[in-house]
Specification:
The chain has 293 residues and is of the alpha/beta class. The chain folds into 2 domains: 202 residues, Resolvase, N-terminal catalytic domain (Rossmann fold, 3-Layer(aba) Sandwich), CATH 3.40.50.1390; 46 residues, no CATH class. Helix content is 39%, strand content 12%. It has a 5-stranded mixed beta sheet, with helices on both faces. A two-stranded antiparallel sheet has the order 6-7. Strand 4 and strand 5 form a beta hairpin. The termini are far apart. The C terminus is likely disordered.
Length: 293
């Protein structure tokens, strides 16, 4: 006869073996077990790589409204800076997603901000009225903390208020979980196009928290700075003191160790830096000649 104790032991061993195959109790799961238990990631289009979940966008929208209502109490009404109610936040999230889905920034969207510009003119006067500006935020990978985006936005909005620049929600752009080495970031491309659209009539301002948020590719950074400078767009790095503008003959820009402040008064186009050790009379990346030393 079969010993009941032996039968119970075999059943317990079978249960342990079955439970170990799911990879949770097995300290050394096989590659097949890991692949089998890992849930597949949802399929996304290429342009959706930098688009965050709705929950994170909702946090960003609430942070934007709370700080802007504090910085601009004159606009804290139902039209431009309403209370962060769930309906308002949901509308802002959808507006951000709709804009992110477009491959090109639509300049016609600036027409919707004409009422805001008129409101600012009535409050502050036409001579001292704040101008519209855009901003861009980014963090590198999915393992980074999304709070970084909200921290960057807070720094940018405070700096913009000091310079009488109003950043509307339609001009807030961001990429979540994309490296700065990737030049094909949807939010970044939209931000550059929006800055160029703002600069059609006057100098526009493009805010970033620091230069690495725009790009970690040196060549791409040089192309970006030259492109926006030619379009009369001022680039402001809030945390690292980056300043690049077209109209200034003295422009401070120190994003790389090999670049220092440009003191060449003969450079009338306001180049953004002088390469260390370059020969006298050589051209910088902006096409300006260095002063003779």
């Amino acid at each position: 006869m079969q010993n009941p104790h032996h039968a119970e032991c075999r059943q317990q061993a079978n249960r342990q073996a079955a439970s170990s195959t799911d990879g949770f109790q097995n300290p050394h799961p096989s590659q097949e077990e890991i692949i089998r238990r890992t849930p597949p990631r949802p399929l996304r289009h290429s342009w959706q790589r930098g688009l965050p979940p709705d929950e994170e966008l909702g946090r960003l929208a609430r942070e934007y409204l709370a700080l802007q209502r504090e910085l601009w109490p004159e606009l804290a009404d139902a039209d431009w800076l309403p209370e962060p109610h769930p309906e308002t936040v949901a509308h802002m999230v959808q507006a951000f997603k709709d804009q992110y889905a477009q491959p090109q920034f639509d300049p016609q969207k600036l027409n919707t901000l004409e009422r805001l510009t008129a409101r600012l003119n009535r409050i502050y006067g036409k001579q001292q009225s704040p101008a519209l500006a855009c901003c861009y935020c980014r963090y590198s990978c999915d393992n980074s903390d999304p709070v970084s985006i909200r921290d960057q936005l807070r720094n940018i909005l405070r700096r913009a208020r000091q310079e009488l620049q109003f950043v509307a929600w339609a001009l807030v752009f961001a990429d979540y979980g994309i490296s700065g080495l990737d030049c094909n970031r949807r939010g970044f491309q939209l931000a550059c196009q929006a800055a160029e659209a703002l600069a059609t009539s006057a100098e526009a301002t493009f805010y970033i928290d620091d230069y690495t948020r725009a790009s970690r590719n040196t060549l791409e950074w040089l192309r970006l700075a030259a492109r926006l400078r030619q379009q009369n767009v001022r680039i402001i790095g809030v945390s690292d003191g980056l300043t690049c503008r077209r109209s200034s003959a003295r422009c401070s820009c120190t994003p790389w160790p090999c670049v220092r402040r440009c003191n060449t008064s003969s450079c009338g186009s306001g180049c953004c830096g002088e390469w260390r050790g370059r020969p006298s009379g050589a051209r910088c990346w902006a096409g300006c000649r260095s002063a003779t030393r």
